[in-house]
Amino acid sequence: MAAKSLRTFRIVLWSLVVVVAVAATALYLFRPPARPLGLTGQEFALASTQGGTFTQEDLRGAPSLVFFGYTFCPDVCPTTLAETTAIRQELGLTPEQLRIIFVTVDPERDTLDVVKSYVEGYDPSVIGLVGDADQTEDVKAAFGAFSEKAGEPNDPYYLVNHTASTFLIDADGSFEGTIAYEEARDTAVAKVRRLVER
Asked: 1-15, 97-111, 136-150, 181-195 — which is least confidently predicted?
């Protein structure tokens, strides 16, 4: 009798497992899980050189190339700004079709006016984003980006080590990949073309 009860219990248990599995599959197929904005889904809010506040929700609407840097950067940042604006021009895209977004990781020196002047030197449509120390940490966490000061602590001309990749963000605000610093030009152009044609 005990063996029969145990067998019945196992049948019921496995039946429940099958029901749950089928229900989960149906839920996924008919209502796919939302993809996070940016890379991790972390919320952030920064002042924009285009005016107002830019949040994770503003990543929606148009494909974007997002990269982190600072205006005192001697090499990576000016190179990346020059290359991203050149790629957009090469593909014949407008700022509405492909946004270029520069996020400073040096809130101590990079004020909104400093960043605005810096990015507009490459293209007036480039969006510069600026926050205080905590806001900067939030946006870095949102993209899984890294930065740290280098050199002497009291040196006003300190450098900042930072993530050098450019993040590809789809029009729905989702992360689609990266372009590495100094990646082959044809590969980078192909990635951007795929991003805007999705």
From this structure: 1-15
- Residue 126 near residue 88 (C-beta atoms within 8 A): no
**b/e 113-133 (16+ beta carbons within 10 angstroms → b):** ebbbebbeebbebbbbbbbee
Nearest to 175 by CA among 39, 24, 1: 39
Nearest Cα to Cα of residue 191 among 170, 173, 174:
170
Q: How far apart are CA 182 and CA 103, in angstroms?
A: 19
Four-CA torsion 171, 42, 102, 117, nearest 10 degrees:
120
Cβ-defined contacts of 150-158 (< 8 Å, 24+): 157/72
Which two structure tokens, joined as six digits, stand for 23? 């229900």
The whole-angstrom separation of Cα 112 and Cα 117 is 9
Rounded CA-CA distance 167/177 in Å is 6
Please tell me which residue, 187 or 32, carries the higher pLDDT value. 187
Torsion from C-alpha of 38, 42, 46, 52, nearest 10 degrees: 70
For the sheet containing 53-55, what is the strand order?
53-55, 45-48, 127-130, 99-104, 64-69, 166-169, 175-179
Q: Quick one: CA dihedral 177, 85, 99, 92, positive or negative? A: negative
Write the pLDDT tens digit of every residue in 64-75. 999 999 999 999
